[in-house]
Amino acid sequence: MKTNKSFTKRLKITRNGKIVARKPGQNHFNAKENRAGQLKRRRTQVLSLSAKVHQRFIATAAKSRV
After folding, report:
1. Which residue ranges make up each domain of the chain?
2. What was the pLDDT predicted at 60?
């Protein structure tokens, strides 16, 4: 199974091996959003993936970090 490269670029791997991603929908058009909503989207979220998918993304992201 191939890795989705555009999705992999949005991921970051922590030192403990957790996969962290940005929450979607925060790039533009936030003027009407209240401040709490804006700050809520700035935080990252930890992805809970199956072991097989987790290994696939760790291998690909580790190659792109070097």
Report:
1. 5-65
2. 63
